[in-house]
Amino acid sequence: MKVAISGATGFVGRHLVHRLQTEGHEIIALVRHAARAAHIFPAEQFPSVRLVTYQPQASGAWQQAISGCDAVVNLAGEPLVGERWTAARKQEIIDSRSIGTQKIVEAIGQAEVQPSVLINASAIGYYGISQTAEFDETSPSGDDFLAQVCQVWEQAAQAVTQTGTRLVILRLGIVLGQGGALAKMVPPFQFFAGGPLGSGQQWFSWVHLDDLVNLILYALSQKEMTGVFNATAPQPVQMQELCQSLGAVLNRPSWLPVPGIALELLLGEAAQLLLGGQKVMPQSTQAASFQFQYTQIETALRQILT
Questions:
Q1: Inter-residue contact 222 to 150 (CB < 8 Å)
Q2: Distance CA 21, CA 25 (A)
Q3: Counting beta carbons within 10 angstroms of the beta carbon of residue 204, is it exposed (0 to 12), middle (13 to 18) or buried (19 or more)?
Q4: Among 46, 55, 53, 57, which Cα is nearest to 16's?
Q5: Does pTM top 0.90 for this prediction?
Q6: What are the tens digits of pLDDT across the range 200-231?
Q7: For residues 125-151, b (16+ Cβ closer than 10 Å) or e, as one string?
């Protein structure tokens, strides 16, 4: 199989590329910075990877690389954390997903030999924030900023169905692996200063990185899969339980809560990523007969951290 991947140098993309090469597939990695990508995917270790430099929000010669691919996996988007959500930053977050996806869809529509499937990332932020509701793929969207981002993101992807290409939208939960969100949570525990964020009652809908990569590969191969699927483990936990499990795995206490007001002062509106949360169930994903390898949070953390 020949697969084009945007966001190939990101946390999820790197692992997907590695897995695809291990299984003997050919990869077209759409990258913004060729030199950085060449360092991540050195040719001698990744002979199946072809790097194609592109501007995610602009049409160009890079779109020709989509022609002849069997599939496209679109993981690209500006990071949600790291900067305060100013009006300008919010627009960057939206454009990186909506316009970036539009250009991928445009490339598929122009391809002489069109890919048969587009796997497009979205996020569980689609459902909005709640400490009491339970969401699945049939639940309506929320009305906060992250929900709006996911709505325009998914709308842009839906246009690909007009080309006859099968569309799978994966709404990602918090991805746990070596790196990513977990890398930011571990250090306080190592220094005996770990604990829940905010009230500790907010839901944490997570997925192990291996399960996410497995789900992407499953969606590529299962031709009957189409539509929206939650990429979240079937047993979400509350923040307090997450931190207790993390402390147990690291043999450290989980006793020092981080006040919500402190996160709001530090991150502004972006603090809702940590203080909000939602309980999301992968109903359609399991109905499609996908089997999660990691369903218990402590088991997942032990595999990652030990």
A1: no
A2: 5
A3: buried
A4: 46
A5: yes
A6: 889 999 999 999 999 999 999 999 999 999 99
A7: bbbbbbeeeebbbebeebeebbbbbbb
